[in-house]
Amino acid sequence: MNSPTRPLTSTDNWPEVEAACRRILGERICQLIDEVRKDPRPESHLITVLHQVQAEFGYLGASHLDAVAQLMQIPAAKVSGVATFYHYFRLQPRGKFLVNICFGTACYVKGADRVAEKFMSELGVQLGETSKDGMFTVEACRCLGMCALAPVITVGEDVWAQVTADRVPSIIEEYIRRAKAT
Amino acid sequence: MAEDISPRKTVSVVIDGTPVRVPEGTTIMEAAEQIGISIPRLCYHPSLSIAGACRVCIVEVEGMDHYLASCHMPVWEGMRVRTNSPEIRQARRDIVELLLDNHPQDCQICERDGNCELQNLAYAMGVRERLFAGQRKRPQVDSSGHSVVRNPEKCVLCGRCVRVCAEIQGVHNLSQHGRGFTTVVAPAHYAKMDESVCIQCGQCVMVCPTAAFLEKSSTEIVWQALADPEKHVVVQTAPSIRAAIGEGFGMPPGTPATGKMITALRLLGFDAVFDTDLGADLTIVEEAHEFLIRLENGGPLPLITSCSPGWINFLEKFYPELIPHASTCKSPMSMLSTLAKTYYAERKGIDPKKIFMVAVMPCVAKKFEAARPEHRMPDGNPYTDAVLTTRELIWMIKCYGIDWARLPDGQFDPPLGLASGAGDIFGTTGGVMEATLRAATRLATGKGVDRIEFLEVRGVEGVREAYVALGERAIHVAVANGLTNAKIILDKIATGQERYHIVEIMACPGGCVGGGGQPYPPPGVPVLDKELLRQRAKALYTIDSQKTLRKSYENPAILELYENFLGVPGSPKAHELLHTSYRPRLPRGIR
């Protein structure tokens, strides 16, 4: 320091900020970040790091993104911009049950959009979002190759055939029941 | 651009039939400007990096099967360019129409009606009808901030705000989020402006070609206060206002308009018109005193000025370890507001609760500063009740129906109206430093010939350093404007690479004359134009040189203030009323 006398207590908050970020991300991710920071252009590894964070935590939460920003010294806005740009990066945790509604040609023609709308209104979510109770994530997917069974949805590993909008509430109830039973 | 000093190769190109020879690496747009052709553009800005986002500046290049963006394409030897033809004009018109198709059609009720780059461009391109009515984006407005309001519905994704915030201010608060149709410019996590690393400097407001960024309006509460018979409404004006307000009424940039400004304010109904420059003089006396104490007691040095609230926000979020270096003095605005509700109230026998203090500032960060919990009276009311930008005041004067050109000159009111020239130059980069040096040399030597002018700290360049004689010793001073430039000095301080004694930092390019609340430049002049800043600064230096009172500590109003109220500089009362403190804030910025 160039000032002749140092102030008695430091006003720098970096030690607490750094420690909090390392706690949030955990040892494995921190090791990865420490490794990539040895590169002359560590910011070029941002997407790699984000993939690992999503693999570790199931999604990219705001606190994860801020922690990555601080430890990699990349502006938070840039990290946030990258995370929202790529569809693969989930900003919400996945629900207990992943509902995939097939939007392939046959299913679409047989009313997959109405099925999707019903799921969205019953659960209060948009496509790609997770219900507030953390139970269901609703996604649209491409042709599953079971066109004779159209409209098709999958919930986790289960396949549901000839699904119509009025069957949606009972399907949801079935999984809530299963979740309670375990 | 090449770093080596060997003469650059030149290339010969033909633009619209006219040959021109330019250095290698010149873009088509730059080459065209040399022969007087100004290609229409939107996202391009001479002070910012090239984005090539809007595609308005497209031209036809012989041999290429598609139009090229002239802002980024470097010329090659023998290039033949056409900047104009019926097809090119049609293409540019189509491009602007596509921008407008995802934009509200509400010019007549928009804040930037008559003052909008997109509007001017649409007119120039010949857009006279909208043929396409498709889906429109409907993002939410963020008007939660004290200083800056974000309206992404009006955004054309030019990216200027992202670039100015990152490149000129080094804050990098904004980024484009999402993709395609749902792209939105926002802080990280789509957070509210006041909850991000935003420092409220308002440069995003200045560079935005539309109304996607605006200042938070305070005109309504000021109109209401003026109409309230119970309230004693007083106003203070920063130095930068008098240098720029004339631009709103057709005066050439750099015309000092102090007298007319004061008369206009009286016509609006203010009970007293005070001069923030007196607050500046007071800041100088207190800060020079603070500096000499630090000099004698071994630190902490350098002393860094604290009157720029954008800089203070930056300090607290990005360089919290340097907080002890900041002067504990309040800004001139806050000092004057405090005096208005204590000293002035006492002298006039007015209940401070009835005083409504309005500050006219070139700054939008001052709106945030006025609301800070540290700047409140013991009963919890703020010292500064409302902050108006120069733009807001210009509008209020127009709204009232005042004929600016015929206004006679007015005078500021005692006891808070008399200021030295040192106070006036606060508005420009280097001004605070010069004002401080005028006082410090005198206070240090105690006698003798005092310097008034310190030309070595003047100028609009981003970073300036100098050695100045202070009595027997030489002190090392530095001045920076624009925070990317400030980082150069701050990093040297933080690493101990350089030992400075006093450092002046202004958040906005050019200092306050380039503040986020100043009038938009005239059409054809880009924002952040250095010549415009120089002209406004010249107005202030002119005002200073025409005054006989040029040193803060010779100001009779200041001397009376100390004798009858404060005691001496640095007294307990001065500390209680005129000094403040800062603390590290989250989110912490990335440097």
- The best one-word shape of chain B is globular
Structural class of chain A: alpha+beta
Number of strands of chain A: 4
Mind describing the biggest β-sheet of chain A? 4 strands, mixed
Mean pLDDT of chain A: 92
Cα separation of the termini of chain A: 61 Å
What proportion of the residues of chain B form beta strands (DSSP E)? Answer: 5-15%
Mean pLDDT of chain B: 93
- Beta-strand percentage range of chain A: 5-15%
Helix/sheet category of chain B: alpha/beta
Count of alpha and pi helical runs of chain A: 7
Q: Residue share in helices of chain B?
A: 25-40%
Order of helices and strands of chain A: HHHHEHHEEEH
For this structure, the quaternary state is heterodimer
Low-confidence stretches of chain B: none
Helix content of chain A: 40-55%
Low-confidence blocks of residues of chain A:
1-8
Identify the strand order in the major beta sheet of chain B.
Answer: 2-1-5-3-4
Measure the end-to-end span of chain B: 25 Å
